[in-house]
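Let us work through a complete example step by step.
Step 1: write down the sequence.
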Amino acid sequence: MATLAVGIDVGTSSVKAVALKRTGSGYALRSVGQADIRRAEYHPEESPQSLAEAPLRALERISQDSAFSRKPCAFSVSGPRVAPRLFKFPSIPKGEVEQAIRFEAEQIIPFDLAQAALDYVLFDEGMEEGKPVMEGLVVAVHKEEVDKQYVLLKSGGFDPVVLDIDTLALSNAYLETEGVADRETVALINIGARFTNLAILHGPRRVFVRDIASGGDMLSRAISEIYGLDLPQAEKRKREATYTPLDELEGGADAGGGDLGETQPAGGTEGFGDTEGFQPVDEGNEEYVLLDSDETGFTSGGGDTMTGDEEQGFAASGETQNNMTAAQRISANRAVLVDALGDLISEIQDTFKYYINRRIVPRIDKVRLCGGTAKFPDIDEFFASQLGVPAQLWNPFARLDVGGVAGKFPPNFLDELGPLMAIATGLAMRQL
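Step 2: predict the structure and record it as tokens.
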């Protein structure tokens, strides 16, 4: 089996690309690329034609790197036209499995299978009431979605040969870089712009997946509403808070508005796990602030949904940076997160409860966050407190050999970029 080595993740707000080489000890990073996709919400000055062509232009910028151009690659899809479903039936001969799964899929997939690409994976055979049962995951993707992505990638200078879904690529990256113990359950949460990919790994051979229609756009909208900014300004502030250290955020510097692909070389809830020994983020290490002390004179527009402590945190956001304590900054960030991601948290909680109550998994041991929004200050502590499970930012590049390319980038650039690249990394680890 040959390693494809190239993974292309076409998201809502950017294109991410990873090229890997398998080594004796794992994987070495050969190249990485990221290019923003200009969107109507954040670039209203752009013409409709320019916005329609934005994904293609981003792909073309990535394909200028010879590590990606015309190379066989894996790509993935997500969203409402992707239908992953669990199945279970009595154990049958291997020759009858595919027909049985197709029959099962016809009962549980919400669109006509004649218009779908279908694939499945079998888990280890289990026992139920003393009898062997076959369990697995079947995935149907509407062919129009596949065709759209395929044509886009070909037009952008790529050779797409393998189709995956975002959640399974995410799982693949984690299994290949971190691994999961036999009795361990890890929830991977990739927060994209419009969708959040949730994958629950129970041991190394069982995975449960879901796409949730909520993501980083909600955070931008919350900043817009709470601080009286238009969406482009709110998006800019979100990026500044995510990437710019406090002492560099003077005067509203445009730290997050650039295109990395062009500027660089190619309230409490029930607990879901055992949190003994888990310590929240040390507030004294807080390094970032949501907003700087400019002349906008922001006032909170979300008082109905905030506690008294949170209102105090928002009031503090109008103070100078030097006078703000770490606790005040965390409170301001927490209030934005509560307003923006409350629905997402509820969906994740419901998913955890479903699998635990049905005894599909015994518990959730830990949460790993990735995606651009996962780098927002204090979001790991927010998820941990809401879900009752230890949560940390996950950087798949931390387990790769990056020595061959590190010199091409500024210091810490790959550490900053890594959490955005989990899906592309998992795709590059696919085999043909």
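Step 3: interpret the result. Confidence is low (pLDDT under 50) at residues 244-324.
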